[in-house]
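The instructor's notes for this session suggest beginning with a concrete chain rather than abstract definitions. Hand out the sequence below and ask the class to guess, before any prediction is shown, which regions might be ordered.
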Amino acid sequence: MKFDYIKCHGSGNEFVMVDAVKYNLDGIDLAAFSRFICDREHSVGADGVLLLVEREGMFGMRMFNPDGSEAEMCGNGIRCVARLAEGYVGARRFEMFSGGNRYGITREEDIFPTMPTYGVDLGVRLASEDFGFAEGASQFVSQRIERLDDKLLWTAINVGNPHIVAEVEEIDYAHLVRLGERVLELRSEFPKGINVSLVKVLGENRIFVATYERGAGITASCGTAMTSSATAMALNGRCDYEATITVRNRGGVVRCICHKDGGLHTILIGNASYISKGVISFEGGEFSFTCTERCNE
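After discussion, reveal the predicted structure:
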C-alpha cells in the first residue's frame, strides 16, 4: 500500500497529513503509524498525524499524537485539514467535525502574503468530566489545584479537549515539564490527562503561551492551548472580549477573538502552511517514506 502525505504546520506546530478520503487506510494501525512517522530521528518527524475524513457528507479531522494516542481536537491541525478539505468543498465557509464536535471554518485574509490563513470557531465549556479537580462545579476560574501546585491560580477550559491555564510573570519551562508530568500521577484530578499552559501577559491584548500537551510534551505550538489561554485571560479580565488578542508562542503567532454573545466561544485565526510532500509505503507490517517535493506555500 502506498499513499501521499503532506508535511504541514500551523503556527510552527508540525504535522504529517494524509487524505483518508482519497486513500483507504483500513488495516493500518494508526497508532503505530503515528509513532513511526512522528519520530524526528528516524522518520519524517512531526508533532502529530492528521487525517482528512468524511462522514455523512461532512468532512472532518482525526488527529494522533506522537505516542499514538488520539486527540479530540487540535486547533493548529484543523486549520491544515481545512485547507485540504476546502479543495473538496469549494467554499470559503463550511463546517468540519473532530472528536464528536462541529466547528465553523472560514478562509481568512492571509496573515502574511502567500500564507494561507483559516479561522476556526471553538465553543468553550467551563465544566467538563475531564476536570476531576472541579467535580460538580459550573466553572473553575483562577483557583488553586493544591496537589498540582500550591501557588498558581488555574482556569479550566474545554474547547473540544481539556486545558488548564495559569498566568505567570515569567515562563519556566522546567517547571512546566514538572507540572505536565505531575498531571500523569494525579488520576483522580485528571482522569484523562490534561493540557497545561503557562501564560505571560505582554501588553494590552497580547500574551505569550507555553504548553505541555497530552501525549506530546512541550511542543513549539498548540492551537487549542492558545485559544484556551486567550479565553482564560478574558475570563480573568486580563484581555478584552470582542477584541483581537495576539497570541505568541515559540512556534509563531495567531489571533484570537473571544465572544460571549450566543454562548462563550473563541475564534482562532492562523496559518496553514505546507512544508513538504512525499509518499508513505506500508508493506509487511513496516512503514517507509520518501520525500518527493519541498514546499513553500
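Then share the key points. The radius of gyration is 18 Å. The first strand starts at residue 2 and ends at 10.
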